[in-house]
Amino acid sequence: MRGLWVATVDNIDWPTAPSVSPEEQQEELLTYLDLMVEMKMNCIFFQVRPVGDAFYESEIEPWSEFMTGEQGVAPDPLWDPLAFLVEHAHSRGIQVHAWINPYRAKVRTSLLLSCMPQKNSNKGLDPSHMAIRYSEYAYPYGSYLWMDPSAQVILDHILTVVDDILVRYEVDGLHIDDYFYPFPEGGLAFPDEATYAEYVSSGGTLSLEDWRRDNVNEMVQDLGNLVWSHDRIFSISPAGLYRPGHPEGMPPPIVGGDPYEDIFADSKLWLESGWMDWFIPQVYWAIAPPEQSFPEVLSWWLQVSADSAQKLVFGGTAIYKIEPPSDWDPQEIVDQIEISRQEDFRERFSMGNVHFSAKYFRDGTKNITEHFKGVYSKDAAIP
Q1: pLDDT tens-digit map of 297-332
Q2: What is the CATH number of the domain that holds 333?
Q3: Are strands 312-318 and 173-176 parallel, antiparallel or unpaired?
Q4: 77, 22 contact by CB (below 8 A)
Q5: Distance of CA 42 to the CA centre of its chain
Q6: Using an 8 Å Cβ cutoff, are 341 and 295 in contact?
Q7: Where is the Glycosyl hydrolase-like domain (predicted)?
Q8: pTM confidence score
Q9: Residue of 156, 134, 129 whose CA lies nearest to 63
Q10: Residue pLDDT, tens place only, 270-284
Q11: Residues 6+ apart with CB under 8 A from 205
């Protein structure tokens, strides 16, 4: 696996701006694909649904504001980025995996939610947006607008969106990242007390925390089953750490945040249970620091896979850290790729890497493309 994440939220990687013309947007996508061919990369994870919107022609959700400047407004002249990408990537021997965010409905930088009264948190949303259609389950939270993961209607909507993508586009798979419940902000409690009370009143016995994890577990299982019913690949890229210092988690000296508690993501359970085809932990740390060491964190995940479902594991790398404040030397990433290839890692299903994010290759930041030509010197088939 030599994968590349192309993020569209806030125009991180593509398009460079909503004001860029459709012709220029197409040229930018082709530039990425040609660069991937040159660098002998073989898989693109393309963010098609960052905030309940669409980077493809949809009758279910609105066109993305990050593409056209206004949510719900179609590109003019009309074109379909996902169809365009699939056609031109496949002609170059590159796989395309549609990357969605299930619950996130809006981000601060596009709506300035943190500066707005809650009653205005839906401002700027198209009438077809899920936060309008299911407004009773749309919660302003910190710098976001978030859908309630416990609501069956929200899960059904997500599954309908994914089914539509898999029916109409020849994508090779469906991908989700590390956004489940929102990461805690400023000590704020996620406002799902009403739906939890409904669960308890109907006889539910799980604690609030376990109930939230159960909601996410159900989504992960249902998504996987749906993707497999279409004979496609299902992949997940969760946060890199898992319960540091806990008996069931990563051992000392690894320390750091705990997504199990913070965003209710039991990613170890997902891997042990085999609920995905590809597991791509975001191992966004350098090799040397023992508190969060790339080889130590990746090795722990590999052992979990080897001891259970034996799924392929691709270590996600933090290309973005070659810029300040981290200011890594690109050789750090090259060395991480080499570590991922070590025999002991290979024996435990380490089969490549996925890199975040694409713009650093496009921009040639710190001459990173030249560094990669040494480590990606020959073509590779996706395992």
Answers
A1: 999 999 999 999 999 999 999 999 999 999 999 999
A2: 3.20.20.80
A3: unpaired
A4: yes
A5: 18
A6: no
A7: 1-331
A8: 0.95
A9: 129
A10: 999 999 999 999 999
A11: none
Domain count, the chain: 1
Q: Mark residue 18 as left, alpha or beta (left: phi above 0; alpha: psi -120 to 50; beta: remaining).
A: alpha
> Which of 17, 74, 42, 44 is closest to 357 using CA atoms?
44
CA dist 207 and 209 (Å) reads 5
Whether 382 is covered by a domain: the verdict is: no
In a domain? residue 52:
yes
Domain that holds residue 273: 2-103+153-189+208-375
176 inside domain: yes
Beta bridge partners of 107: 144
The chain-wide mean pLDDT, for the chain, equals 95
Q: How far does CA 161 lie from the centroid of its chain?
A: 16
Q: Which of 217, 301, 303, 297 is nearest to 263 (CA)?
A: 217
Which residue shows structure tokens 């990425």? 32
* DSSP bridge partners of 258: none
Question: Average pLDDT, stretch 166-186?
Answer: 95
User: In whole angstroms, what is the distance from residue 333 CA to residue 309 CA?
Assistant: 28
Is residue 58 domain-resident? yes
8 Å CB contact between 83 and 55: no
Q: How far apart are CA 356 and CA 73, in angstroms?
A: 29
* Cα-based distances in Å from 239 to 99, 191, 215, 314, 348: 16, 23, 18, 13, 20
What type of residue sits at position 329?
D
Burial class (CB in 10 A: 0-12, 13-18, 19+), 249: middle
